[in-house]
Automatic annotation (TrEMBL):
Keyword terms of this UniProt record: ATP-binding, Helicase, Hydrolase, mRNA processing, mRNA splicing, Nucleotide-binding
Limits of the Helicase ATP-binding domain: 33-197
Catalytic activity, as annotated: ATP + H2O = ADP + phosphate + H(+)
Family of this protein: Belongs to the DEAD box helicase family. DEAH subfamily.
Stored Pfam families: DEAD (PF00270), HA2_C (PF21010), Helicase_C (PF00271), OB_NTP_bind (PF07717), WHD_HA2 (PF04408)
Stated name of the protein: RNA helicase
BP GO annotations: mRNA processing; RNA splicing
Amino acid sequence: MSEEEEELGTELIAELYKPPALLPIAPLKDPLLYAIETFPVTIIVGETGSGKTTQIPQFLYKGGWTNDGSQIAVTQPRRIAATSVSARVAEELGCQLGQEVGYSIQFEDVTSEKTKIKFLTDGLLLREMLVDPLLKRYSVVMVDEAHERSLSSDILLSLLKKVLRARPDLRVVVSSATLDAEKFLDFFAPDDGQTVHSKTKVDYETIVSIEGRTHPVDIFYLSSPTNNYVEKAVDTALLIHNSEPDGDILLFVTGREEIDDAIDMVADRIADLGPSAKKLQPLPLYAGLSTEQQMYVFQKADQNTRKLIVSTNIAEASITIDGITYVIDTGYVKLRAYDPVLGLERLNIVPVSKASATQRAGRAGRTRPGKCFRMYTEVAYDALDDATFPEIQRSNLAPVILQLMNLGIQNVVRFDFLDNPPSALVVRALDLLFSLGAVDAYGRLTKPLGARMAELPLEPMLARALLNAPSFGVLSEMLTIAAMMTLQGTAFVAHDGNNKQLERARSRFAVKEGDHVTLYNVYQAFTNPAVGKQSPQWCRENCLNYKAMLKAVSVRKQLRNSLDRMGIQENTLTSSDAIRVGGMEVTERVQRCLTTGFFAQAARMKSDGSFVAVGGDTVLWAHPSSLFFHRKVDWVVYHEIQESKGKVYIRDLTSVEMEWLTEYAPEYYKVKQR
DNA sequence: GAGCACTGC
């Protein structure tokens, strides 16, 4: 873990600290233990600051739920939560982290034989189910933050419902925000005619509510709607600054562009404040910033200065900042939507849900009473959805379906989802998995190919290309490229918006074959003991994100281990493979290997520099971060396609020969030609 | 021609 991350962690611990005996949950200890003893499923409705995440596992531990040698699992949607909460609980129990209390996240397993309470990400518990489908090592599984409806927590809850049928002794605790409790209750209620001991919903599960312990937050609405919420929000910030007592301001907008706009507007307006007036310091906050740039929001402002943090949704749950007294909520958020017809992702600006609005307002009341100004009317608030649209209904489902099949779910269409994904998403995903050879014509997972693809922590197309790498003699190269792809474009980072400098840095690694090999070069240079030396300084000089590069190193190591376990090594190259690839340059073999995974995402550049997808008529544009934004090329395969402001961008492009497409995917292209 | 909301294995 980097120093910065640790600082973020302690930040969170400080935030969470309340003497356990004074927490609102303390008097509920016995009722809670009774509920969990009595009912297989307990829904906990607990507001922020109730102490549910830190205290319930301790109640269970002290209540004897681990005496038979089993463990208590507590899942979190985010890594930072798993690590910081486990540190808190270890301290309260007076043990060393990794002993009785531990955590497990990708790349880091801080648990031991002695561990009784284990915090882990929900995605990792899903992975554990591959080797332990009935979760036999756990007596209780607590799924925290289930109301966020993340892809993996949704799937986890469905699987837990199944596991309960085989394991009546298992206890499931679901922690949720107020508005969705009934939904979870209904979901876990045994269906009529099933074998859950003919119990009714009433004696099968229960809801326990815990009060929050945050300070009161006064909510203010607009009296009439605005058509420019960013401008209105800036007006409000200035109004707060000029008329309200001390306390920093947190303003929620949807993305980087709005953040820049808001900060420019504020800069213009504070020029009018006069030199003697109290200062207002606008600070941006979004995930794309480097860790250093993000740290500014945690630093105490200068004397006589009020911070105005202009943030994306990252400040809603992922990052907690001390000293916020005022929240301005524009009422919008950018959400991903997957278009199964065009097979592309869109980022849509949509109104937030009531749950989101409540969470945002709560950010003003963490340390003292606060105020929240909503840039919409009360009527508009009443019309908001209760909860955020579940991720499973707006994602590319190919990775999820592959994983479910590998867990032995034969018929994904009949799987018991909390909310069913639209059938078009399921069909599209199955089509893709079929064309990649992960699923056969009968809709069954293929072995070993499909199962191996499912085991790799990569999207199916990339997994397929990586598994083909030995036959091209480029396993080492493809491991690096796959690891770099998981960074999703975060390898390069501009210093203070200096894009020219970034482009110069990128060009130092660039090769004509395209973005994949360029990123390979970046990794090679970073890890070369004579060049990058894996050092933060070298990254800074080359506009690279140090933390992201370290992640690539970890991912590559993990992928290498997975392939080793599967018995896949470079020397598994057969003699016919060797003949086929003999005499080819390494780069060409890499290009061909990528084609075997990404053949379905091929496009050809037209004379005007735009692209047209194979078998389609959508006009595509190389993303400005691609080498082919400026350079000419003929055919390419691309890693990602995304619509933004009405234009469709493709990212991470590699040039290929048209013949390779039909050579490596004859079935796919035969069908398309008809 | 000009740009990734946020997570996670």
